[in-house]
């Protein structure tokens, strides 16, 4: 397999850095090729602005979607963005790794998505008509590729349980798993989440890194989250609501978009 890890932590000598090393070592031991985009080391520019669209005439109002579409089609995006898009084309598996900061990904990683996911590349693809809303949610440029998250969190597992005060982890990660990964077509694997990590001792590090190595060994065989595909007939066009009667018993809100209950 060809694995791209997009790594978002400002300190390479961190827990996240050590887990990255464990993941790379295990993947290479399995014979996989690995590329890493270490965003802080690359001084990745996080904010989208005019400089992302060098051919935009100076007097023209910036509309990010249309500028992105035009420059992507004309191969006119900046070199840093084009290099990341090339890595995404190369990879058959993509991993986003980050510490949970304010219940979300660090801004630098969100900025990688905002800039690399150009219009025509990650969105705005496929037929848009009265009967079809493009290729997205299970279809698109990333179709056939796997993706997963590696996340570390200071909070306890209970804090992220169904009744936990932080909200359930599947809900917090839904906008990333469903909105950022499934939308452009990735097959999304369950995330690897390490909880209660801020005072991790050596013994617990061995357990956590062992669990991560196991996930790296089973990347090709792990069952994905069974999100419903947009164009498989489950949604009413054009309002894109789940058709009545298809919901898994008891499922509401985000869980409606998962086709069957998880086994665990
Ligand atoms: P580090 O600080 O590098 O290390 C954590 C522990 O692991 C330390 O005890 C360290 O000694 C140990 N360790 C590191 N490397 C090794 C190694 N090689 N071997 C053995 N032990 C090692 N948490 C939440 O749950 N929800 C939030 O919304 C949230 N928001 C945050 C917002 C901010 C701005 C910040 C700074 C933190 C937030 N946190 C939150 C906590 C955050 O998720 C954790 O601090 C982070 O996940 C820890 O990962 P790290 O790589 O930075 O760990």
UniProtKB/TrEMBL annotation:
Keywords: Oxidoreductase. GO terms for molecular function: NAD(P)H dehydrogenase (quinone) activity. The keyword Oxidoreductase applies. Residues 1-202 form the Flavodoxin-like fold domain. It comes from the Bacteria. GO terms for cellular component: cytosol. InterPro entries: Flavodoxin_fold, Flavoprotein-like_sf, NAD(P)H_dehydrogenase_qn. The keyword Oxidoreductase applies. It holds the Pfam family Flavodoxin_2. SUPFAM superfamilies: Flavoproteins. Belongs to the NAD(P)H dehydrogenase (quinone) family. This is NAD(P)H dehydrogenase. The lineage of its organism: Bacteria, Pseudomonadati, Pseudomonadota, Alphaproteobacteria, Acetobacterales.
């Amino acid at each position: 397999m060809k694995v791209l890890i997009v790594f978002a932590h400002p300190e390479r000598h961190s827990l996240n850095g050590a887990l990255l090393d464990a993941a790379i070592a295990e993947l290479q031991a399995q014979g996989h090729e690995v590329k890493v985009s270490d965003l802080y080391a690359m001084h990745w520019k996080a904010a989208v602005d005019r400089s992302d669209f060098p051919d935009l005439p100076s007097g023209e109002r910036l509309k990010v979607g249309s500028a992105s579409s035009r420059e992507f089609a004309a191969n006119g995006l900046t070199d840093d963005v084009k290099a990341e898009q090339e890595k995404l084309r190369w990879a058959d598996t993509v991993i986003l790794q980050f510490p949970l900061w304010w219940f979300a990904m660090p801004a630098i990683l969100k900025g990688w998505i905002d800039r690399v996911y150009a219009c025509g590349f990650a969105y705005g693809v496929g037929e848009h008509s009265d009967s079809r809303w493009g290729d997205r949610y299970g279809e698109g440029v990333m179709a056939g590729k796997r993706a997963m998250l590696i996340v570390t969190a200071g909070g306890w597992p209970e804090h992220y349980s169904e009744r936990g005060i932080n909200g359930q982890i599947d809900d917090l990660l839904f906008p990333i798993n469903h909105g950022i990964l499934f939308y452009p077509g990735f097959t999304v694997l369950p995330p690897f989440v390490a909880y209660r990590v801020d005072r991790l001792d050596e013994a617990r590090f061995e357990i956590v890194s062992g669990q991560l190595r196991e996930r790296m060994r089973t990347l090709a065989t792990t069952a994905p989250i069974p999100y419903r595909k947009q164009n498989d007939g489950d949604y009413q066009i054009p309002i894109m609501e789940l058709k009545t009667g298809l919901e898994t018993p008891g499922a509401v809100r985000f869980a409606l978009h998962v086709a069957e209950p998880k086994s665990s």
